[in-house]
Amino acid sequence: MMGIGFPELMVILIIIMIIFGAGKLPEIGSAFGRSIKNFKTSMKEAQEGDEEAATVEEGEQAAQVEEGKAEEDMTEEEKEAAIRKKAEEEGEAKDKAMRDKADSFTASLPRKGSYDFSKDQEKTKEKS
What we know:
By secondary structure, this protein is mainly alpha-helical. It is about 80% helix and about 0% strand. It contains four helices and no strands. The longest helix has about 40 residues, at about 25-65.
C-alpha cells in the first residue's frame, strides 16, 4: 500500500533538483555514498568487536574450568566480575605496551638544549 515506486522517486528527484540545483546533485550523491560506506564499515567493525568479545568470553570460561571452578558453580555476579577482571588485565597490558612504545620513541628524540649553534658554526667554518 505505502510502497515507493518509480513515479514517487521521480517526484522526489525533481524536488531535490529544484531545491539544490543540478550542479549540486553529484556532490550530494557522493556524500550520500560516503556516508553509506562509513556506515557499512562501522557495522563491520562492531560485528568484529562482538566476535572478539565472544572469543574472550570463551577463553575466560576455559580458564575458569582449568582453575577448577566449574561454570555451573559460579553465580552471574561472579561471572561478570571475572569478565571485568580479565578485560581490565588486558586493558592494562595494552596500556603498558603503548606506554613502553611511547617511551622508547621519546627516548630516541634529541634532548632539549642538546643543539649548540656555536658548535655548528665551528663545523661550518672548518668545512670551508
